[in-house]
Structure formats: C-alpha cells, structure tokens
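User: My notes are a mess, but here's the protein and adenosine-5'-triphosphate's SMILES. Can you give me a structure?
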Amino acid sequence: MQPIVSISNLSKTYASGFQALKAIDLDIVSGEIFALLGPNGAGKTTLISIVCGLVTASDGTVTAGGHDIVRDYRAARSLIGLVPQELTTDAFETVWATVNLSRGLFGKRKDHTLVEKLLKQLSLWDKKDQKIVTLSGGMKRRLMIAKALAHEPRILFLDEPTAGVDVELRRDMWDLVRGLRDDGVTVILTTHYIEEAEEMADRIGVINNGELILVEDKNELMRKLGRKALTLHLHEPLDAVPEGLGTYALELSGDGTELTYTYDTQGERTGITALLTDLSAANIRFRDLHTEQSSLEEIFVNLVSDSR
Ligand SMILES: Nc1ncnc2c1ncn2[C@@H]1O[C@H](COP(=O)(O)OP(=O)(O)OP(=O)(O)O)[C@@H](O)[C@H]1O
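Assistant: No problem, the inputs look usable. Here's the predicted complex:
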C-alpha cells in the first residue's frame, strides 16, 4: 500500500548553522497512529513543521497523499490538519467563528452541520458563543483540535497533545485520538511521554539529536527489546542466593522471600525450565510466581543513551 506520508532524506539546518534534522526517511501508513518519541530538542517539531509547510527543508522531499509538499503545496496541505503546541488564534474571537474561519482558510465551502458535529464531539458545543480567552486550558486544547479538523483532513498532526494537561484530560485526548483513527484519520503525534506512545501508538519512531534512530511496530518493539523478569515468592525466606544457583541471573528481595530471575524473551533458551529444576533440587519451594515485561520507558532510555 502506498504510504499516506512519505519523507525521504529530509534534513534541516537552521540559519544559525544548527542541524536539527539529519537525513530522515519515514513512511506513514494510512490509518495508523504513529508516535514520534524523543527528548526535548530532538527535532520533532521541526519535522512536523516541514511536513505542514511552516518550515522549509534544507534537503530531501516529503509527499502527502502522493502530492509533493513544496511543488503541490495546496493539494498536500489540504489533506493535513495540524494541532500545534500553542493556540495561535485571536483570543477575542468566539469558538464558533474561529472554527468556521479555519475551514474557510482552506477554501472549503461553509458547512455549519459539520462544525456543529465537531464541536459536539469535542464537548465544546455549549461554549460555541464564548470568546476563546474565557476557555479553560483543556477547552483550548480541544478547540485547537476542532480547528485542525474543520477542513476534514485525512492526516492529523498533534504536536505534544497532552503536554502539561491533567491525567483526566490526557485520557480524554487519547480516547478522542482513537476515535479519529476509527473514522479513518491517520494520526501522527509527537510526545516525550513514553506512557503516551505505549498507550496510543501502533508504531513508534524514536528521534534523538535530529536522527531517527528506530521505527518499529509498538508491540514488536516491546517484544524484541523487552526483557522479562520472573519473580518467585518463596515459602521460606533465604539469607542469600544458594551457591549452586550462582550461574543464574538471580536477585533476592522482599526480605529474602522473593527471588527474581531476569531473562531475554528472544533468547534461544530462557533458562526457566533448568532454573525450576535446580530450585527443586535445592529444595527451594515457592507458593506463587509472576512475570513482568520491561516497559517502553526502559527500552527508550537504553536506546537514547546508546545513540549519544
Ligand atoms: N528557528 C530556529 N533556529 C535555530 N535553531 C532552532 C530553531 N528552531 C528550533 N531550533 C533548534 O532545533 C532543535 C530541534 O528543535 P525542535 O523544536 O524541533 O525539537 P522538539 O523535538 O520538538 O523539542 P520539544 O520536545 O522541546 O518540543 C533544537 O535544538 C532547537 O533549539
């Protein structure tokens, strides 16, 4: 299937001489939620600003829906909605006027039914006659989404959609984004919250120092790079890991009542069967056990520190 956004050899050097992006190649699949994950200053905003035509690239090409974003700017841009980090609209405009205006800016004919539907969907309908300056932070965020969707884009970029919002609103945002995906909108979001990428994304791209260091299916990423820990809850506490078990990566905790074994899920052998046999031979009995997979956070921290 043809990608809905195709980024090829994209580089950006700002006038200051700072290179914010280094030869990025990335294809976005239609209908996915793609999370671009990276620390502050990694180049996330620069990347989406280029795709949305707000910043010019120093090198490389981008197409959206098959249209080159420079040569065929209008056609490409009309497919794209952008929710920036900060609201840039006139604060004394009403909600209703500003969303309708956003649609008009793309040369689309008025459609009050669509705007009404959007405002209802975003729980802003009862605020439609209020001036933006009177809205709460969460309402402003939702308004930015309504504005970005007013011209019915097929691709939505969300730049740090939940930075600085409370947990409840974050969950609302996530539900909303999933709903958009269900409606067929392709969503690309930037975030430095690993939890957000873990929760939301179908695929994850990790960007650091202007380089895309990894692009991977989320589940695959967690499976491939994740390690697992098996914790055995012992009947009798141990003072130390018995000598005969010294070859295993074992750690004793919980006042000697928990024995944790860490293993690689992708390894040829996990070593679990041998460990359990040896435990039994050493007469160590357990009453319960559980396993835990390493989180995306641990994977991310390892990746970023490796690429420095
Ligand atoms: N107009 C500019 N001129 C010079 N350097 C810039 C300009 N805009 C951004 N940069 C630099 O480019 C780098 C990438 O910035 P960018 O805003 O793309 O990062 P980001 O990943 O979005 O970060 P954050 O998570 O903090 O929003 C940063 O080092 C930033 O200082």
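The first helix runs from residue 44 to 51.
User: Great, I'll file this with my notes.
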